[in-house]
Design brief:
Structural class: alpha+beta
Strand order of the largest sheet: 3-4-2-5
Protein name: Protein-export membrane protein SecF
Family: Belongs to the SecD/SecF family. SecF subfamily.
Number of helices: 14
Oligomer: single chain
Keywords: Cell membrane, Membrane, Protein transport, Translocation, Transmembrane, Transmembrane helix, Transport
Membrane topology: Multi-pass membrane protein
Mean pLDDT: 81
Main location: membrane
Distance between the termini: 42 Å
Helix content: 55-70%
Number of strands: 6
Low-confidence stretches: 342-365
């Protein structure tokens, strides 16, 4: 299996096997637009399940419990504050966390005593805390500021590095796509948004941009001097770059997602609600979406922007015209044979597009001079 995967990767790199990712970019645009709209729909209709760090309130943690059922905690809070609807979650295998809106000092004491009695633990096993919403608001503001600064620096650095603002624009659009879909999926699942969640959202931006830069670097390498030849178009060279980095993108994504999925499983099913679960879900979804966008969205967007340039547009037409002329000549020489035969006679693959780097066997090897 490993040998087959290696051969598949080699075929992608040499051009013997190629997936028309750039050629079918309209399909991927439609998928991206639909996913972004669905994510916006979830955010507008369902919204976030904000944690206590953002909405504020009182929190009780009951430790060393023998029974982790949540109903005793709900009943204990209802006895003190009938109008209160507590949020009860299990933390690990021996703790219960209860969150309410802000309670008075007397109500906090009464709820603590009621929880201790409900779970048959001492008062020392019940910890209380009050968290104000201003702390969460401050975290949100700093996260937004950090996001704006990050996107600005990414745009400037990529423009300078690639000497092309179109690659920077395509990368930023892909980042926006990754962030919105990750946030939408998180909101749809309904887990609480905590500071750890915000950290996860910001972390995936760095992962996504790294994967995109690697692909763009190969695109730049393949398209260097593109206007000096007439064998392939800019889109075809860019598509080859995506195929050449496809195996690398898959390997990197799998290696990154495996430990994150393990953390997600441990945080969600073994330890219960907590920081690990919140950050792992954001990372897992964001990395998966980022891997998709770096392959199927970023480079196709860059090609779409580049093809608006007059020089690239004229070069593409020149290549296609020359290719059509070769097909016409082959048609005359083959006496009206099938189109595939005509393309083969003209040296063009049946897809109608030359694949840069396609394998030519011994024909690609230099001939030895006799006597040496």
């Amino acid at each position: 299996m490993a040998q087959g995967f290696a051969q598949w990767g080699n075929d992608l790199y040499t051009g013997r096997k190629s997936y028309q990712i750039v050629g079918n970019r309209r399909r991927f645009y439609i998928v991206a637009i639909v996913m972004v709209l669905l994510s916006f729909g979830v955010l507008l209709t369902k919204g976030f399940n904000l944690g206590i760090d953002f909405r504020g309130g009182s929190e009780f943690v009951v430790s060393n419990v023998s029974d982790t059922s949540q109903q005793p905690a709900i009943d204990a809070v209802s006895e003190v504050a009938p109008a209160e609807v507590p949020r009860v979650t299990t933390v690990g295998g021996s703790a219960i966390r209860v969150q309410t809106d802000r309670l008075t000092a007397d109500e906090v004491t009464e709820v603590r005593d009621a929880l201790a009695g409900a779970y048959d633990v001492t008062e020392n096993d019940v910890t209380t805390a009050f968290i104000g919403p201003s702390w969460g608001k401050d975290v949100s503001q700093k996260a937004i500021t950090g996001l704006i600064v990050f996107l600005g620096l990414v745009g400037v650095v990529m423009t300078i590095y690639f000497r092309n603002w179109r690659m920077a624009a395509a990368a930023l659009i892909a980042l926006f796509h990754d962030l919105i879909i990750t946030v939408g999926i998180y909101a749809a699942i309904g887990w609480e948004v905590t500071p750890a969640t915000v950290i996860g959202f910001l972390t995936i931006l760095g992962y996504s941009i790294y994967d995109t830069v690697v692909v763009f670097d190969k695109v730049r390498e393949n398209t260097s001097g593109i206007l000096d030849q007439t064998r392939s178009t800019y889109a075809e060279r860019a598509n080859l770059a995506v195929n050449q980095t496809l195996v690398r993108s898959i390997n990197t994504s799998v290696v990154a997602l495996l430990p994150v999925s393990a953390i997600l499983f441990i945080g969600a099913f073994l330890l219960g609600a907590g920081t690990l679960r919140d950050i792992a879900l954001a990372l897992f979804v964001g990395m998966a979406v980022g891997a998709y966008s770096s392959i199927f969205l970023a480079t196709p967007l860059e090609v779409t922007l580049r093809e608006r340039e007059t020089a690239i547009k004229e070069h593409t037409q020149k290549v296609l015209d020359k290719r059509a002329a070769l097909v016409a000549e082959a048609a005359e020489g083959t006496g009206g044979a099938s189109r595939d035969a005509q393309l083969a006679a003209a040296g063009v693959q049946a897809t109608g597009q030359l694949q840069p780097g396609s394998h030519q066997g011994v024909k690609a090897q230099p001939r030895r001079k006799r006597g040496h």
